[in-house]
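pinned: reference chain
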Amino acid sequence: MGTEGKVIRCKAAVAWEPRTALSIEEVEVAPPKAHEVRIKIVATGVCHTDLAVLRETSLPQGGMHSFPVVLGHEGAAVVESVGPGVSKFSKGDTVIPLFAAQCGECEYCQSPKTNMCKTNWDQTVKGVLPDGTSRITCRGKEIHQLFALGTFSEYTVVSDIALAKIRKDAPLEKVCLLGCGISTGYGAAINSAKVEPGSTCAVFGLGAVGLAAVMGCKAAGASRIFAVDLNKDKFPKAQVFGATDFVNPKDHDKPISQVLTEMTNGGVDFALECVGNVDVMRAALESCRSSWGTCVILGYVQEKDMSVPPMSLLLGRTLKGTFFGGWKSVDSVPKLVDDYMNKKLKVDEFVTHNLSLEKVNEAFDLMTSGKSIRTVLKMA
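pinned: its structure tokens
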């Protein structure tokens, strides 16, 4: 019997409350409504943003911090069914769901200055679909879907503008990582920082996003790439992606910005902050050469504000942020998959652990202990 038009019962990892372990539950996933697609998740990466949303609790409810919620936003899937009005997807298509949508029609999508999409954004950050509701329920309660995705579920429903169709021969347990971390770090260097050939770069934080930023700096032709992290065990991996120098702040008795400034005779040309720590953000900025250095913020944090002395900017530094590495998602993700398949982009090297959905809490433990770069959860 087919499942189209029917409620699907499946497993999902549900976060019932902040700062608690996820619970493996049987959930009900409703059929897709107009301009929605129901997808069967094959694999999903566990991203630091998932952990940050679970742990940051000081903000009022109603945003991404609404609970209960199915986390997960770095998945790869197969289309199970489509709702009315969907024309770009068919049953059986292989896809990557997108937390950064691309409707192609709003003023943001029409502009070359941004990769943001204005359509449905207010609903997306609340963890619901365009009509203001979720398609996932459990124990009679509506369950939010992080970024209107919720890939820690065997099935989920997403908007058709938040989905990229990819080639069928791509290994989904690998390319799922192009739905967030790798694309964000790699694009931040290439699209947002616009790293130049022969330049010097510093990447703060050597998680998946940071290592992807190192890879982007190398691809852009940087001559010297400083990898900065408190965990010396990550340095060999950074070298695989192109780092030339390694700096552990614990090895110095002066601020890391001063260390880098002295090592480069004035500061780096480009700094990329991939930690999500406001003190590190300031250090990254102050590591930049004062006259023309550019600092790009990638790390996610909402609970604290960043403090910057005006003089850090007045002499010519640029401070900017990036969202999904500057990629227009629907257009770019299939091309990034092609680059991976053509061996122009490293992906396999980011995967350190493969676990089942039932071990999602173990994946968070591996992340917080610094033992993993990316853990991929494979669905049954």
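why pinned: The longest strand covers residues 36-45. Confidence is low (pLDDT under 50) at residues 58-63.
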